[in-house]
Design a protein that fits this description.
Layout (H helix, E strand, L loop, with lengths): L2 E3 L6 E3 L2 E3 L9 H13 L4 E3 L15 H13 L6 E6 L12 H15 L4 E6 L8 H13 L3 E7 L3 H13 L5 E7 L19 H10 L2 E5 L21 H17 L3 H11 L4 E5 L4 H7 L9 H8 L9
Parallel strand pairs: 3-4, 3-10, 4-5, 5-6, 6-7, 7-8, 8-9, 9-10
Antiparallel strand pairs: 1-2
The structure holds NADP nicotinamide-adenine-dinucleotide phosphate.
NADP nicotinamide-adenine-dinucleotide phosphate (NAP) binds next to helix 9.
């Protein structure tokens, strides 16, 4: 697995992160450990988690994903080979949705404990908080960095103008600000004004902002929960539009030509985009993950990338 530069930092991270949202809840400990092992055996180092994973699954309170990672790292003695991300800001249990200093600080302590580490490599504001001044938010992340409790800060589910404002306020103080942005993103474009609730889509203007300012882009839910494999009718409703029909056709043509799944092709497309976008990849079995990881062995031609970047299907070629 290759590495790419993280924002304007001197650090390089894996170009495919492992999404661990359901580890320790829907995905039991044994399978979670196999997925983690599989990922590191393929050279991956970037594990993506959050404080609230997966509190919305009946019978779970949140913190399960971090706790599984902590336990696994302790058993494998490999903390120093890994790059860990976690997140704060959404509500779960009795924790309100907020980026107030006291919430960030206390949630960071809880995450450190569950992860059994003394530093979170990448700590995300999981969602924006319009009620807490951005100066205060950036100052809290900066303090955690100075204390060595986090290494880098990232934004997730932010609007581009708020991200720009946060980073310009940080810059005025001589701080690094948010080095990356993690948004909902896949090959298919959601319909205009599609509403994903608290989730924010990576828009073309965000891509432009991030590209110009060296903010690394990361994509969550790249595989639409596996829906690409089941054809147009099974896509989430916000993705059932004209453009998706032709993009799916192109995707399937290229997948057949390369003899891999559509998931592998779309992940390869994302990684090979310029600038590269880091997908948070996951699966509920090692078999799924191994199918998705075929993306790592694929080099899409310039022509194939162009076809995937536009809406028009070219029949009979691939
Ligand atoms: N920042 C945020 O707000 C945010 C939000 C959501 C997620 N995330 C991060 O992004 C990661 C990925 O999110 P996601 O789970 O929504 O991603 P996704 O790519 O949309 O869906 C992953 C799911 O697709 C199915 N799948 C994967 N590979 C498959 C294959 N080869 N064949 C058939 N089905 C396959 C599996 O579902 P089944 O279990 O049904 O088989 C798997 O759990 C999370 O773990 C988390 O780290 C971040």
């Amino acid at each position: 697995m290759d590495k790419i530069k993280l924002g304007n930092t001197d650090y390089r991270i894996s170009n495919m992160g492992l999404g661990t949202m359901y580890f320790g809840s829907k995905v039991d400990e044994k399978v979670s450990f196999s997925l983690l092992d599989f990922y590191v055996e393929h050279g991956g180092t970037f594990l993506d988690s959050a404080n609230k994973y997966a509190s919305w699954i009946p019978g779970y309170d949140g913190g399960e994903s971090e706790a599984i990672i902590g336990k696994w790292m302790q058993m494998r003695q490999n903390r120093h080979d890994l790059f860990l991300s976690s997140k704060v800001g959404f509500a779960y249990g009795d924790v309100p949705r907020s980026l107030k200093k006291e919430i960030i600080v206390s949630e960071c302590e809880k995450s450190l404990k569950r992860l059994k580490t003394d530093c979170i490599d990448l700590y995300f504001a999981h969602a924006d908080d319009m009620e807490t001044p951005l100066e205060d938010v950036m100052s809290t992340f900066q303090t955690l960095k100075q204390q060595g409790k986090i290494r880098f800060a990232g934004a997730s589910n932010f609007n581009s103008w708020r991200l720009a404002e946060a980073n310009s306020k940080a810059k005025q103080q001589g701080w690094e600000g948010f080095c990356c942005l993690q948004q909902r993103h896949t090959l298919l474009e959601p319909s205009l004004r599609a509403n994903f609730g608290t989730q924010q889509v990576l828009t073309p203007e965000m891509e432009q902002y991030c590209g110009i300012n060296n903010v690394t882009m990361m994509a969550y839910s790249p595989l639409l929960g596996g829906a690409y494999l089941n054809g147009f009718q099974q896509l989430p409703i916000h993705y059932q539009n004209k453009s998706s029909e032709s993009k799916l056709l192109v995707l399937n043509q290229i997948a057949n030509y390369q003899n891999v799944s559509v998931n592998a092709i779309l992940l390869a497309w994302m990684i090979q985009s310029k600038p590269g976008i880091i997908p948070m990849v996951t699966g509920s079995t090692v078999l799924q993950l191994s199918e998705n990881f075929k993306a790592l062995g694929i080099t899409l031609s310039v022509e194939q990338m162009e076809m995937l970047n536009k809406d028009v299907a070219v029949p009979n070629k691939y």
